[in-house]
TrEMBL record:
This protein's record includes keyword DNA-binding: no
Family, per entry: Belongs to the class-C beta-lactamase family.
InterPro entries for the chain: AmpC-like, Beta-lactam-related, Beta-lactam/transpept-like, Beta-lactam_class-C_AS
Keyword Metal-binding: no
Catalytic activity: a beta-lactam + H2O = a substituted beta-amino acid
Full protein name: Beta-lactamase
Enzyme class: hydrolase
Length: 393
């Protein structure tokens, strides 16, 4: 089962996320704390890139107010050159949590309501965006319960069914060449909703793109400028881009798809880019971790469960909310994946801990290895807490 969250049709943000068996794979490590948390992070990063096909990794951590960034490995095979703080990474579906944050802000500003029919924000008639009279509402977009397809156009879902096929990036590029907002709305007219919205989880990047359109409508600004303005003002997060300029594109991380030894192309641009086209540096993501850990009204709202699927798994404003984990406590997480990178974000209030980890390789075992590394790091922090050690560098 693939764990590429931009494309996943499965209930959980990763098919491995609840498995304690992850600790047996890759970065197992010792639970005995070290004097230096930075050294622990460095060790976890070094062990992670020993996994097959992984070239490099960057990890950003905020622990009880202290920030740590580590880069390991070489971006390109046979070419010395590790990632740096200036490297611009494709963060894939972590982009959705940013969309959720903007939505939470819009709700608090009373610009929209979670129970609004999405058709209120669309031009033209969309009689198809309902099921037996029950419309798709904004809360359904945020919780992946709208019944909308994963991707539009729907033929992209066929290509992504075999994500690791080396032809996949090329075929995605062909599908999205010239595919903009007009084409999205054309295809949205043809969608068939086969179940009552709000009941069943069905991962949908289409829903996130539609959420971005709604935000543009209520704020009367294009999505990228709205996003960049909010995160810079509220989270001190700079350098975030959806459409990088020439200088920024030169800093975009090289990446590898599956077992292809040749670097692949970036994720093609989606109509709004809200579901998987955000690019950010690791220092920028560290500021996002700080923002999430600080709480505040917008973060608190975005972490509020909109639907509970079982006692251990809920969805907030695109955030996966996991409970019942004795080690981590209740935490908020998301996976991001595009054809040449995969990443994770974890917000763990139990330890006042935030983790962002990314690699420049994307295959069917990448998420598994990264989760093992993160679990090891959380175990190190838990051991540190148990012995009363601080967050020394």
């Amino acid at each position: 089962m693939q764990a590429i969250s931009l494309f996943s049709g499965n209930r959980c943000f990763s098919c491995f996320v609840f498995s304690i068996a992850l600790l047996a794979t890759g970065c197992t490590g010792s639970p005995v704390p070290t004097r230096d948390l930075g050294a622990d992070i460095d060790e976890v990063a070094a062990t992670l890139i020993e996994q097959p096909l992984l070239h490099s990794t960057s990890i950003g951590v905020v622990y009880r107010g202290e920030a740590f960034i580590r880069h390991r490995g070489d971006m390109e095979t046979g070419k010395p050159g590790p990632p740096t703080d200036a490297t611009l990474y494709e963060i894939g579906s972590l982009s959705k949590t940013l969309t959720g944050t903007l939505m939470a802000n819009a709700v608090l500003e009373r610009r929209l309501d979670l129970d609004d029919d999405v058709r209120r924000y669309l031009q033209g008639d969309y009689p198809n965006l309902q099921y037996h009279g029950e419309p798709i509402r904004i809360r359904h977009l945020l919780s992946h319960t709208s019944g909308l397809p994963n991707m539009l156009p729907e033929r992209a879902n066929t290509v992504l069914a075999d994500f690791t096929d080396q032809r996949t990036p090329r075929e995605l590029n062909a599908i999205y060449a010239g595919y903009g907002k007009a084409e999205f709305f054309r295809d949205l007219h043809a969608v068939e909703i086969r179940q009552a919205p709000g009941k069943d989880y069905a991962y949908s990047s289409t829903g996130t793109e539609l959420a971005a359109h709604i935000l543009e409508t209520v704020y009367k600004r294009d999505y990228e400028s709205l996003l960049r303005g909010f995160v810079q003002e509220s989270a001190a997060m700079t350098g975030l881009r959806i459409r990088p300029n020439e200088e920024e594109a030169a800093r975009l991380a090289v990446g590898y798809h599956s077992d292809n030894p040749v670097p692949t192309t970036p994720m093609p641009l989606l109509p709004w880019g809200a579901s998987g086209n955000v690019k950010a540096t690791v220092p920028g993501m560290v500021e996002y971790l700080r923002f999430q850990l600080a709480g505040g009204p917008v973060v608190t709202e975005s972490h509020r469960a909109l639907v509970e699927f079982d006692p251990e798994f809920s969805i907030g404003y695109f955030w996966n909310i996991v409970s019942g984990d004795r080690l981590k406590g209740v935490y908020y997480a998301h996976h991001g994946g595009v054809p040449r990178s995969q990443c994770y974000i974890y917000i763990l209030p139990k330890y006042d801990l935030g983790i962002f980890a990314i690699t420049n390789q994307s295959g069917d075992q990448t998420a598994h290895a990264m989760e093992a590394a993160i679990d090891t790091l959380v175990k190190r922090v838990a051991a540190r807490e148990a012995t009363g050690q601080g967050a020394s560098r």
